[in-house]
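Weekly modeling sync, notes
Attendees: S.R. (lead), two postdocs, one rotation student

Agenda item 3: backlog of single-chain predictions. S.R. asked that every request posted to the team notebook include the full sequence so nobody has to chase files. The rotation student volunteered to paste the first one in as an example of the format we agreed on. Action items at the bottom.

Example entry:
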Amino acid sequence: MRIALTGGSGFVGSHLLQKLVSEGHEVRVLVRENSDTRLLNRLGVKLVYGDVTNRKSLPNLVNGADIIYHLAANIYTGTPDKFWKVNYYGTRNVLETCLHRDFQRLVFTSTVTVMGSISNPLANESYPYSPTSPYEKSKCEAEKLVLRYHKKFDVPVTVVRPAVVYGPRNMYHLKLYRWIRKGGFLIGSMNNLVHLSYIENLLGGITLAAEKPKAMGEVYIIAYEKPISWRRYVHLVAKAIGVNPRDGQVPLWTVKAVGHLSDFTSWMFGTNPLLTSGWVEDLTKNFAYDISKARRDLGYDPKVTLKEGISRTIGWYRRNGYLR
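Predicted structure, as returned to the notebook:
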């Protein structure tokens, strides 16, 4: 099958790319001129140089494709304008390029955070939109746009909303794992709920969304069967690393101040933040979901358990010298 992929050099995209190549698909990947293409070159995929913000570069990617996976997004850094430029207008460019072309499915990777924090867990796909950060707002409007193009122009789409994704090569969870390894304190009580998705499980959900006829025009949450408290997650990681978690707590106001300062320095200098106000929110509110729709329609089954996923992730960090 002929596959077109945006975001192939990112964490989720690179794992999806490996899966597609291993299954024998012919894959084309959109890459920017300054992208690290070492993995892509090793896999032997066709590189299409361009950017989702440049519509003229997209026909060479999607022409003749059977399936289009749109994963490219700005997630962590930059001004609000940059989030909108990539996440919303970049998605619009992909949709416009796909108009009047014959292909089977466009899978758009959204995020569960378009629903904001969940006041009454568990939330399913019908839970109202309630984004708060520039990233969440831009992804929310992009998701709405994708669904409008399906209804108005009959573009064959499916939307996937991953929960918090972790696994090998995730350099943002590495910060958490290092913090736990060093005996970092808990932030507040951390008894609120987080819903995780191991990368391999997520890939299964994404590819099923491209295959199932029933998924046309639908939205699916992809995560583990149940959420877990942040406290429990920290304890599981600590046990797997081989350290005792510290039960002392850092006052929440202190961490919030650090998060806002980190937001500001990231905006000023374009650097990756050590901590963001959004991440602090994630550590203090509930994010918990119902995946029964994905199970029913897609046959989705998160086979890699949380403990196994944590073990694999720590193993990769250690093998590559990121965690001792």
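Discussion: group reviewed the output briefly. Residues 134-153 form the longest helix (20 residues).
Action items: rotation student to repeat for the remaining queue; S.R. to check formatting next week.
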